[in-house]
Amino acid sequence: MRRPGGHRSPGCSLGLRHPDGGRTHPGRTQAPAQPAAPPSRAFTPPLSRTLPPSIGTPPKPPKPTPPTDLRDSGLIAGHITRGGSGPCYGLLAEDGRAYALHGQGAGNLAEGSFVTLRIASRSSDIDCGPGIRVSIVAP
Questions:
Q1: Which pLDDT belongs to residue 25?
Q2: pTM, 2 dp
């Protein structure tokens, strides 16, 4: 005898249908599935006999030190743009600023020469041309 959707196997005469589509035999019980055994927690020896160092807190970075390349605020370096025997000169500083220099006794400063001068601010009563008005303290 054959039922729809099933098949007969040799020795199976009842043809009961199993939920998974196969056939079962009356009187036989299937054992319930057992969960897999947990992995054994066997002791694993350490890779080294010495203990690793503790991490702890990192050291604080050193305090910053002041820059060593600071120039005295009274010094200026640049190229002479208006030269001569004085007392008025023009200077284009390294930072791009133009200065109108006044210096009694500063001597002859040739146009285009590179100089470093000690300066101080001065009053506006002496006009030495365009630029920031300063006096030469020491050439």
A1: 54
A2: 0.49
